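It is worth pausing here to work through a concrete case rather than discussing structure prediction in the abstract. The textbook approach is simple: state the sequence, then state the predicted structure, then interpret. We follow exactly that order.
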Amino acid sequence: MTLHYAIEAALSEAGRAMTTAELAERVNTSGLYKKRDGSPVTPFQVHGRTRKYPRLFSKAGSTISLARWGDSANQATIDEPSRTVPASAVRSTTPSPAVASDVETSLLNDEAFRPAGSIDPEVPDRPGLYAIKVRDRAALPQPFGNLLDSRDSDLIYVGIAGTSLRKRFLGQELRARGHGTFFRSIGAVLGFRPPSGSLVGMANGRNYTFAAQDNGAIINWINANLIVNWIEFAGAHAVEESSLLRAHTPLLNLQGNPAALPQLKALRAECVRIASAGANTG
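Step two, the predicted structure:
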C-alpha cells in the first residue's frame, strides 16, 4: 500500500479530520505502510504526500480531511491559512485558477508514466513539461537512494521544453544529444565523470559532457530504471514548472528547488573542475 492510500484509510477509519502528527502516528501504528528504510513516517511526509493529491485530501493548515467529506470536516480550523501553493501563483497562459491542479494532475498521473526506453517514436516536436521518476529507489547510488526515501517520492526531475519536447526532453535529457541538465546530473550521480580538459576552449564553461562510451552506459541505465511522462503545453509555462518544483522538490532539480541537494551541487562542481582542467591533468 502506498502512503497516500494508508492516509486515506486512516482518515476513513477515524471518520474525522486529523492533524499531520495524528496521521503519522496512526499510519505507523497500523502497519498499513512501511518505508523502505524502516524509519517511521513523519508529519512532514504526511503533509507533503497529501499536498500532492488534492483530489483525495483537503487541507486546512496542519489538519487533513478527505476531499469527499466537503468543507464540514474542517470547520474547526477553517480560519487557519493553508500552506498549499495558491492557485494564483501558477496562472500563466490560462486565466482559470484550475490550471495548476490540471497541469499537476496530468503530468504526475501515475498511470501515464512509461518506460524511458520505449518512448522515442512518441515524443512530439512541441513545447511542454516533462517528469522523470525512478522505478526502484534502490537503483540510485547512495546517498541518493536514501535521500529519495526520505522525501517518500519516486519523482527525480521536472523540466520544461520551451519549443520541442523531442529535442529538449528526449534528445538532450535522455539521449545525450546536446547539453541536457538532467543527463549531466544523473551521469554524475551514477559515478561518471567528463574527460579531463574537455571544456577547455569551450564557450560555455559549465556544459560538460561524458565520453561516448559513458554516454551509452548512462542511456542504458536510464532505459532500464526510469519511467517518464510529458504533457504538451503551448505558451509560456515557466510558472507552472516553478510551482511543481516548489510543491514536489524533485531530487535532481537544482534551480528553483527549495530542497536542492548540496550533494548534487558538489558532484556537478567536481565534473566542471575535471572538464576545465588542463589536458594533461590527472
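Step three, interpretation. The longest strand covers residues 128-134. Confidence is low (pLDDT under 50) at residues 72-100.
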